[in-house]
Structure formats: structure tokens, C-alpha cells
Amino acid sequence: MLKADQDTIIALATPAGSGAIAVIRLSGPQAISLVSSCFRAASGRSLEDCPGHTIHLGNLYEGKRLLDEVLVSVFRAPRSYTGENVVEISCHGSPYIQQEILQSFLALGCRMARPGEFTLRAFLHGKMDLSQAEAVADLIASENEASHQIALQQMRGGYSSEIRDLRDQLIHFASMIALELDFSGEDVEFADREAFRELLEKIARLLKKLIDSFAMGNVIKKGIPIAIAGQPNVGKSTLLNALLQEERAIVSDIAGTTRDAIEDEITLQGIGFRFIDTAGLRETADTIESIGIQRTYEKMEQARVLVYMVDSSALDGQGLEKARLESEALRAQYPGKPILLLANKKDLLSPTRQEEIGQALEGILFISAKTGEGLEELQQRLLGFIQTGLLRNNDPIVSNSRHYEALTRALEAIHRVQEGMAEEVPTDLVSIDINQALFHLGEITGQISTDDLLGNIFSNFCIGK
Ligand SMILES: Nc1nc2c(c(=O)[nH]1)N(C=O)[C@@H](CNc1ccc(C(=O)N[C@@H](CCC(=O)O)C(=O)O)cc1)CN2
Ligand SMILES: Nc1nc2c(ncn2[C@@H]2O[C@H](COP(=O)(O)OP(=O)(O)OP(=O)(O)O)[C@@H](O)[C@H]2O)c(=O)[nH]1
Fold first, then answer.
1. ipTM
2. CATH level 2 (architecture), domain 2-124
3. Which stretches are annotated as coiled coil (predicted)?
């Protein structure tokens, strides 16, 4: 098991570059004495004597050279983020000052913190469990309200406390059963079979609920994929640009310009949408374009909502019939997927023509990607597709794929235990599956962890966290 080493680590806690203020953080046994040795407080007091959770104004020196006037916050072990002595130096935010301060402490025997090392230490000192530590990284990475909420909930304990609790109860039964095995010659039952069955049922229910939430958690974390498909030149790229409010896709009036899928995200009411502009659906001999079309079908498969777009200004009687057939073909090809019919280039349309098209293609939404007309309504409709059932209550949502794996394995093991009990399989075999379940549940909270696993998780953090 990895142990926190005795090094005192240091890192910039604020982003690199210049700002009004920068924060440099130290953690480890020497943190307070090291800073104290080169800091003169305005109050005249020594940092060595001050209590934790106090802030001090003063001058920071490198030898005799004054580096900056700073604020120093002192946290004493174990009452700190990491559980160790922690000192934070808030200096003036010039990159030069930041570097000079870092260098001076490195010269005094600190070492640079590795990515995520502050949070790793918080985990190793029991300040948080593994799933909470992982949530810290998710919280920093979250870019919209929904993923922020999920990370925050997980950081504050989320489902891990419930898992820990059920795991403890399972351990109780595991030890009772182990006891029975010790008395194997005699026919004794220490573990109350009925209570055990109930507990297994309860665990299975929770695991199932968490596993099911992953599909939504994943979608929220990565954005909800929406594919925009349609014949060449109907204005897909223009729509994407209008939604993104930036020139991302290449707009041109040569049919077939969009050769590949282009993806980008926008946030609507706190939910990230990932728009995928797909190559025009068109039979073509152009091989580059056919690859694009192949990818279009793949993207449509992955999307949660399909937007099928037509150029309403180009719809004569024949075009209208073709659009109707194509949209029906889409519905047949991707059953169960919500499809939104969009008629673009409304600005080129007469009101009577619009009415005729509206009657022929029911539920079609008229927009103009060029003028922005109808885009508000489009966004509302997209939200409508996914909001049902999403984020309605405070049920925990699993967004971490490592947890999803562990939960799935744990549930499989629990099912095997349940089957074993039902078929009155010998107790020693059942206990193997119980231990498997305990192992996988412990993986989530970090009660079971390996150096490799920890290294893997924390190396994905940013430095200074
Ligand atoms: N300046 C600063 N801001 C920050 C952090 C930080 O480390 N430094 N944090 C870093 O992510 C977050 C806050 N997290 C923290 C969590 C616990 C403790 C702490 O001192 N805990 C003690 C005392 C608790 C108490 O007084 O009740 C403890 O747990 O024993 C500090 C920061 C966000 N903002
Ligand atoms: N009048 C009008 N023209 C539009 C509108 N939307 C797009 N256009 C024009 O239609 C042409 C084609 O637009 P694109 O966005 O490149 O079409 P696309 O569907 O991405 O085309 P491909 O790349 O071939 O798949 C461009 O000249 C756009 O300026 C609109 O709402 N009204």
C-alpha cells in the first residue's frame, strides 16, 4: 500500500501566468518551519508559534533578499486539506515572483509536487475516500452546471458512504460465514440466512440503480451527442456555426463541403450538447466523401437525438416526397431515437409555401440558420428531448467509468452469492463470491487499492491539486 512519504511538497495552486494574486502551497512535516525561516510577520510573531487556520501578513525573503510582501495561511496537521502541515503563500501574481518563491523553497529542500499529490495525500491521510478524491478532479474539469453538480455531490460523499455502509454489513456476514467454516464438522449457522438474503437484495438494488445511472452520467460528463444530418448544402454547417456562434465548420455553397464529422459543444441550461455535423447523405464516387458518409452512419448510431435537416427553399413537390421518405427511412433505421425534422432557409420561403410544407411534414420546425430565426425554439426542443428523466431528483449519478466497472463486477458477484444461497451451494464456495463482491465495492471507496491504481488515478490530476 502506498504511503505518504515524508517529503515536503510545493506547487503553484493557481494557474501559471500572471494574475492579481498567485497561491503557492506547501504540504508536509517541514512546511511551517521552512516558511517560518524566511518569513517576517508584520505582527512580529513567529509562524512556528501560531495556531492553525490563521493568516499572517509579512515579508518573504530569500536569504537577505526581499522577494515579496505576502499573506501566509497556516494549517496544522491534521486539520488541513492534506491532513499534514500546510502553508499557503499568497503572493503578487507575477510569473517572476512565483518562480523565485518556488525556486527558493526547492533550494531549501522541498520538492515539486506530482500531479494530484496534495489530493493523494488527503486520501492517504483519510481526509476523503478514493471516489471523493476522483470527484475533485472531475470538479476541476467540469464545464457545465450538470457535470459540476455530479462532481460536487460525489465529492461530498455521494454514493460512496452508502457503499461503505453496505460493504461493512457484508463484511459482518462474511465473518459469520467464515466462523461457520471453522466449525465445519458441526452443523451450526451463525449467519442469519434470512437477514443475509435481505442484505444481498438491498445491495443488489443499490448497485443496479447506480449502474443504470451511468448511461446518463456519462452523457452529462461528455455532452449529449446530437447528429445533424441531411442532403448536401441544406445548411448544416451554417446551423452548427450559428449554434456555436463561431466559425468552426467550413461553410461553402459547393455541395459536399462537409467531408468529415465535426464536433463541438454548447451548453444549454447547464447541459452540455455535443453537436456532430455529419457529411451530407449522398451517393458519391468520391472516395474521401464516402468515408465521410460511412462515418455519418456511425455518428448517427451514437447520437441520442437525430436532427434531419432539409432546405425548405429547394423543396418542390418531388423534393417534399423525397424528404418524407428519407425521414421515414431514418425512423425505421434508428428506431426509438428521437428525430427532429428541421426546415432551414425559412428566410427564402413565402408564408403559403411554409404552410404547405408544414402540412406535408408533420412536426417540422422552420428555422433560418442564416438569420437565427427559430434557433431559440430549436434549443428548447432539444432540451425537451433529454430533460425528461434527467436530473429530476437528487439520486446519485455515476459518471466515473472505473466505478461503473467495479459496480458491475460487484453486482455479478452478488448475483452469484444469491444463486449459491438459493441452490444451497457449500458455504466455502459462496464465501469466495462474497469476497469478490467485497473486493469490488472496496475498489470504489479505496478501502481496497493498489499502488498502480492510485498512481493511475492521481497522475491524471493537474499539478498543484
Ligand atoms: N486557499 C485554499 N482554498 C481552497 C482549498 C485550499 O486547499 N486552499 N481547497 C482545496 O481543495 C478547497 C477547500 N478545501 C479544504 C478542505 C479542508 C480544509 C481543512 O483545513 N480541513 C481541516 C479543518 C476542518 C475544520 O475546520 O472543520 C480538516 O479537515 O481537519 C481546507 C480546505 C477549495 N478552496
Ligand atoms: N438564405 C439562406 N441561406 C442559407 C441558410 N443556411 C445556410 N445557407 C447557405 O446555404 C449554403 C450551404 O450551407 P452549408 O452550411 O455549407 O451546408 P451543409 O449542409 O453543411 O453542406 P455540406 O457541407 O455540403 O454538407 C451556404 O451558401 C449557406 O450560406 C439560411 O438559413 N438561409
1. 0.61
2. 2-Layer Sandwich (3.30)
3. none
